[in-house]
Amino acid sequence: MDGPIHSPEQLLMDASFLEWVSGRASLEVQNRWNAWLNASPIHREMYQEALELLQAGRFGDSRCPDVEQEWRRLQARLDRVEESRDARAGRRGRSRSSLRLRNRHPWPVYGLAVFMVLAALALVRVYLLDRQPSMEWTVVETRLGEKKKIHLPDGTVIHLNARSTLHYPKQWTQDTPRWVRLRGEAFFQVRADSRGYQRQFRVQTADGIITVHGTRFDVWAYPEGTRVVLEEGRVEVRTTRSPGVRAFLRPGEKVFFQGNSRRLVVERTNLQTYLTWWKPELKFDHTPFAEIVDRLERTYGVKIVVEDDRLLSRTLSGSIENTGLPTIIQALSRVLQAPVDYRDTHIVFRKGPNRF
Asked: Does the predicted TM-score (pTM) go above 0.85?
């Protein structure tokens, strides 16, 4: 990183930036780019745009030349040329001339050649950047209490929860990145066989990127952070602001993180709590009532008041018919033995018989 950065394209032409986002940078480089990212909202916006270009345009696969590597190769080639000339001169009995040639090493000429090569490499990078096709997106949104089922051309099925937004490519070819952007919650059933499309499937949230290879998993992405729960297969998770921070999940595991997380903590979890919201029945297995309240508030946009705080720590096991908010509330009221009142936009669980 030399001098100020003014555009996402400038980021993509910086070798240290590409190393950083690919997780191959040294600790010093990581710290430098992390400091740059956190210094300004404008930096974070440029980073996000560069990341989108990198994903959508497959910059990682465009085989952009490595300038430093090409420099070393050119130097080695020039040295071999000079050694060859010296050897030929020696065979002709011109060792003095050979020595004179070595002392008169024409580096100004070679330097000009190197400059031309580096300039050409830079132009190649810009050319590759300009050649990346613009991505058009299909946007799917859900309202309060609404769920949608989405079928992608590659065979992936996505269940989008209420109050959520999903972006995915409008046109699909064998070069189309299997890449979606999510705000809210969705359950993904990704085919292992990509049907001629790109092998990797990625989900991007405000906090990071989830990379999968044929799997079933849930992504919850809200302002508080992103949670990933894996039912089947294998996924890789990495954060937005520190791409070197990553974790791999196995079935039955979850991880919660934010864009600036320095460490990802993977935990074993009970899948029923997180993976049945889109099914005909909600299933709970020692699920705290507080978690159920939070999910209902987010899904239906209501405010739920629990007068007895002790109810929030109660855990519930079993299933409830998932046909709408009134059905769920009445079932919870019966199980908890807590009468329910509807007050304007509030649902109130009143204190019931003292059974604690």
From this structure: no
